[in-house]
Amino acid sequence: MENFSFAFLKGVANQTGYTLVFDFYSTFLIVCAVLMVGYLLTKKTKFLNKYNIPIPVTGGLLFAILFLVLSFVFDVKFQFEQGFKNPLYLMFFVSVGLGADFASLKKGGKTLLMFGIAVCVFLFIQNLIGVGVMSIMGENPLLGLLAGSITLSGGHGTGAAWGETFMKAPYDYKVAIEVAMASATYGLIAGGLIGGPVARYLINRYNLKPTDQNHAGDTSDEIFSEPEKQRLITSSSFIKSLGLFALALFTGTTLTAITKGTAIALPSFVWCLFSGIIIRNSFSYFNIHQVFDREVGVIGNVCLSIFLALTIMTLNLVELAKLAVPLMVLLVIQTVAIILYVRYVTFSICGKDYNAACMVAGHCGFGMGATPTAIANLQTVTNHHGPSSIAFIVVPIMGGFFVDIANVIVIKLFLFLPIFG
């Protein structure tokens, strides 16, 4: 077949087969199709809905399999425009930073502090297990980090961001994205499966009772519902929020360029995260501007969804299959590790009471998957055994943004080890 070219698509014949090259507009159209198909599949499939599998993951994996089949049957490869991926995941991490309100620490008090200690210690444990197991099995230790706190406590967004970093020099780990997406997806399912049973075991084992007797008939939504009318997202507020994103992106990318090659060099998404944190809390402290959290969250989630859809639909599933055995061995070990840890450490350090058991369910959720999984675990436990208002304060605060901040520091510390060059 000869080469051809349309406004949106190019076909290039070469010695290794045929490559279809999609421009930005056609790539963006396919990404939107991935998200729509993922939404329909997730909505209609009980398993996907129950375990909070992200829409981009559902649609992206389906399209990745489709492209793999087409490449084998018709000897054709697909090349999509990738230029807009970088700004999208930077926008997502800016949204995490802008959502990190340090004033909210007061809401959790001592319980949040103790829970935070338990969570942060486990970040180190996840990476020690990951690097140790992969070193014993003779695999790249970066696989251990990717199947450690990067994805299991960080989720798909953090996994994809570090995956992009590890694919480049000096790491040159070409299957980093594939490993990250597989690990994060496993973590979502595992976190949803183990959280409720572990919490129920502790509640029954120690005959624990809820302390929120004044809310005995409440659900989590009722406890935290606000009487005020919900603030609307308008064009004016949206522009203000975009201005904050622009400032954080500029600051973060500038710091990346300034620190490049120095001892404090960090990936650009980390600097953008920190820039968002500084801007949010500085503006709040000096009463310059109050960040519209829900609007910032919407912008960040949209950017992450588009980024993940494009990332996952272009996964190299063949290369991932070669790592299936060592990756699954490690992930099973990580699952056993978090069960033992939350049972004997998180539960103990948080007070060995009913609230502690509920926080165990939450820790399983975002310690293996993501904050939505943690909230789903909490809702399941409290619906069966009674309310825990402190757990619904502490778990979202820790899982929503503070664990991401701690995770960045822990990962960077591990990358200083001689084993990573």
Helix percentage range: over 70%
The number of helical runs is 17
> How many domain regions?
2
Residue windows where pLDDT falls under 50 for at least 5 positions: 214-227
Oligomeric nature of the chains: single chain
Percent strand equals under 5%
Neighbour order of strands in the largest sheet: 1-2-3-4
What are the defining features of this structure?
17 helices; globular; mainly alpha; 2 domains; 72% helix; four-stranded mixed sheet; 421 residues; single chain; 4 strands
Please explain how this structure is put together.
The chain has about 425 residues and is mainly alpha-helical. It folds into 2 domains: about 80 residues, no CATH class; about 325 residues, no CATH class. Helix content is about 70%, strand content about 5%. It has 17 helices and 4 strands. It has a 4-stranded mixed sheet with strand order 1-2-3-4. A hairpin with a 3-residue loop joins strand 1 and strand 2. Helix 8 runs parallel beside helix 16, helix 14 packs antiparallel against helix 15 and helix 15 runs antiparallel to helix 16. The longest helix is centred in the N-terminal third of the chain and has 32 residues. The chain is globular, with a radius of gyration of 22 Å. About 5% of the residues have low confidence.
Quick overview of this protein structure:
Pfam families: Glt_symporter (PF03616). This protein is globular. Helices cover 72% and strands 4% of the residues.
SSE diagram, text form:
Elements: E1 4-5, E2 9-14, E3 17-22, H1 24-44, H2 46-50, H3 55-74, E4 76-79, H4 85-98, H5 105-136, H6 141-152, H7 155-167, H8 176-205, H9 220-223, H10 235-259, H11 268-285, H12 293-313, H13 317-322, H14 324-349, H15 354-368, H16 371-385, H17 389-415
Parallel strand pairs: 3-4
Antiparallel strand pairs: 1-2, 2-3
Helix pairs in contact: 1-3, 1-12, 3-12, 4-10, 4-11, 4-12, 5-6, 5-14, 5-17, 6-7, 6-8, 6-14, 7-8, 8-14, 8-15, 8-16, 10-11, 14-15, 15-16, 15-17, 16-17
GO cellular component, one term: plasma membrane
Function: Catalyzes the sodium-dependent transport of glutamate.
Protein name: Sodium/glutamate symporter
